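Attaching the record inline, Q. Sequence:
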Amino acid sequence: MNLLNNLTDFPAVLVALTAAIMWGTWFISLKYLKDYPIEAFYVVMFAFSLVFVWGVSFLLEGRAVWENIMSVGAQFPWKIVCTLLGGMLYAAGLWVSLKVMERVGLALSQPLLQSVTLIAGVVVTLFVGGRPETLTDTKIILTVLFLLAAAFLVYLADRARARGQEAQGVKKSAALSTVVGLTVLSAVLTVSYDAAMSYGLETITQPVGLQVLPFMSLLCTGAFLGVLLTCGTVLTKRRQWHCIWQAPFSIHKWSLFSGFCHYGGNIIHSFATRGLSAAVSYPLGLTSGLWTQLWGLWYGEFKGAPACAYVYQFASFACYVAGAYCISM
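Structure, as predicted:
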């Protein structure tokens, strides 16, 4: 990881975009769960993530992981507390977002979720994490406008798809309007990830904070605790814990795949954040929605939709790319 420790400028942008690809891809696991509870999938995913992140941390840095945590905790204990709490809240928000994806599909859910979290995330990363000198007001405004335009175009695509599928008798998913409440709740919770990263991680605009792997280890620990509190409670009430023990590896492999993509992306994104600041890396991470949309199209979520629905979708892709370019150029 020594190579990633000194990322700056364009290499850091490429790493942040690679993380976005990983984030936007792991959701395809939902297509293979069938009747397996999402909560059980989520518990296994974060249990694996906990082992994966701590294992990578100790393998690469050994005792330095604990030393960094203890050193920062002795001087700034709230950075440790906020990182753990941020992990708990964002994991809960991500679980809610999975519920949205389950109802409206991959192609539509991600832009909807990101449009709601965009403004809150930008505000948090700017005011908590700080703004680098090269990030001008014009870049911020253009990025926000392009990403909001992407969300609006997806809304138009949803309306066109619904009309086309209804005319052809294709079974359609729930309308976007039915999941607005869940989307807002998810946005409120998941922005805690950006707050934890902006406040707890050492970056060019936050000189005092945790190193990447100690930070990610604490964040993952908090996330696992949050999953136990949310999904664990649901599994207990429904008496579904046995689903985990009885599920075959053909199901569990998707939890492992998702955990690797999610936290592998988190780790390399944090290295990019060190060189770019959270204010820049955060909008770049939002391009993950582009890849989720593409996977939704690949899995036939727009089957029976008219041509204009695809036009709106690909126009939203262009807006994602434009937004990423504005923030990183």
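The chain has a mean pLDDT of 81. The longest helix spans residues 137-168.

More tomorrow.
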